[in-house]
Amino acid sequence: MDVEKAFHMTGGVGKTSYAKNSSLQKKASDKVKHIIIQTVEELYLATTPKSIGIADLGCSSGPNTLSIIKDIFQTIQGISHKIMHHSTEFRVYFNDLPTNDFNSIFKALPEFHKLLRQDRKNCPPSIFMGGYPGSFYGRLFPNSYLHFVHSSYSLHWLSRVPPALYDEHKTPLNKGCVYICESSPSVVSQAYSLQFQEDFSLFLRSRSEELVIGGRMVLIFLGRRGPEHVDRGNSFFWEILSRSFATLVSQNCMDNNECTLLFLFSGSNSDQGEIEQDVFDSYDVHFYAPSKEEIEEEVKKEGSLKLERLEMFEMDKGEDGSESYGTQVAVAVRAIQESMISHHFGERILDSLFENYGRLVDEEMAKEDIRPISFVLVLRKI
């Protein structure tokens, strides 16, 4: 599967869209918003550029990206007023894969511009915004073009499913699991780790060339606490997704001992769909939760970026309204994974799959907390 062509958050503003189901990401990023604000303040005071370039990498299509741009804008406006430096213009670039629903962002911009200007009627600032489709695993912008780069909950997505998950005969090596699990052979975790190293090092090199000297980056992404890849954190959510598939699958072995997977859909028997077992076994997610040490090692190897801050924090688990935590997680994961699952299996399994997923998350949370962690990094171009 070509990730760049198939992967995108669910667009629009419908019931299953990312725009409607990204509140968990918003809560988590709000926990470290003070770090973003502090970094922007330090950057602006150190450089006071007349034209400041800001990129949001992995912007998706919901309200979260405009919310953080608004915070950055207001921070710079406040500082520029204090130091009597009022000529700054803003260049804001929204980046995601070409399949992203950029139209939803563009449709929101007129109201967003109005909001930014409502307190600046006498001297409205110049702000220019545009979309930059493409993978951030590679160059996107000219040399020394950006002052500030922000990326929230995007860098745990790899550029591809690691090819080493398959042997020389294209046989999957991680059968029954969509990510690293207890039964995965060691080659699986090694393949994911190597793919992260390749991708993250390319990301750092690319951004280093695009940032001005003294430019900053704030990166927020999922990770893990220690060297073990399997824990009751982010990897456990993928284990639950594997179980959710299993609840929709029964093995139907034919007389010739060839087995198929029978997906049991809600409704009549005519709604049942049948797929070959290798279709399920070949589904792996292009995700990786790195450790603190892995992140530090890649930054050190790149050499031109100084790691000024690296903090770990837990995701909030508070329940909103009548929805359980499992339901909140299920709709969030569906908004992210729907494009890939639909591409691989078809759309008919989605409702049943994520109903099971939400239920299983709630069952596990009743036994013991699932404690996924995130990292926030602050990097400076030296």
TrEMBL record:
One MF annotation (Gene Ontology) recorded for this entry: methyltransferase activity
InterPro entries xrefs: MeTrfase_7, MeTrfase_capping, SAM-dependent_MTases_sf
SUPFAM superfamilies xrefs: S-adenosyl-L-methionine-dependent methyltransferases
GO biological process, one term: methylation
Pfam families documented for this protein: Methyltransf_7
Keyword Metal-binding: yes
Keyword Transport among record annotations: no
Entry keyword set: Magnesium, Metal-binding, Methyltransferase, Transferase
PANTHER family: S-ADENOSYL-L-METHIONINE:CARBOXYL METHYLTRANSFERASE FAMILY PROTEIN
Protein name, per record: Salicylate carboxymethyltransferase
Organism: Vigna mungo (Black gram)
